Amino acid sequence: MSAGANKIAIMLEMQNAMNTKIHEKWFEQGFEWNRAIWVECAEMLDHYGWKWWKKQSPDTEQVILELVDIFHFGLALRIDGTTSYQDLANALMDEMSVPKTADDFKQTLELLAGAAVTNKEFDAAAFAGCMKQIGMNLNDLFCGYVGKNTLNFFRQDHGYKDGSYIKVWNGLEDNEHLVEVVKSLDTEHPDFSKLVYQGLESRYPA
Questions:
Q1: Rounded to an integer, what distance in angstroms lies between the CA atom of residue 153 and that of residue 65?
Q2: Superfamily of structural domain 1-134
Q3: Which Gene3D superfamilies does this one have (predicted)?
Q4: Chain center to CA of 137
Q5: Domain ranges of the chain
Q6: pTM score, two decimals?
Q7: Is the Cβ–Cβ distance between 40 and 66 less than 8 Å?
């Protein structure tokens, strides 16, 4: 397995662990991950800018965070309970190695959203096209994914489900704290996700 496919396999395993934490029998629930994908695509457009009647500049950092969120849903959509993470990862790597792009980022994003709406599927080639047009590589995706997956675990551990979780601390949203924590760490560290969790814990109001 290539290094890239190995990283995708790790993310698939983490995705299954996250889904299981939220609902023990998540696989039987028929959650509509495809809907989560196209809704996130629409939200992302606001961060990128699409209104021709006003001046807008792409918030690249926020767009990248949204792409990471979409990858969570895309992975969940691909996990079928029978195919191994390795085989799923190899297939995803093959698709992502040939990015599908339209004339600009917005149109490529619409390819991704369109596949989710029309075919209820995750178009990994269009996703890779979005990554390419926003200047994001697989390492960026991996670091962003591990960080956000860890934040999701942190949220669940601190009352996200019962509504007691505090999303804004010291004037920053938890996503913004996550960005600062990740920037302060060695992303190649074998315990990267644990260090991210500890960094969030140290900032969270007791």
A1: 17
A2: Type II deoxyuridine triphosphatase (1.10.4010.10)
A3: Type II deoxyuridine triphosphatase
A4: 13
A5: 1-134, 137-206
A6: 0.84
A7: yes
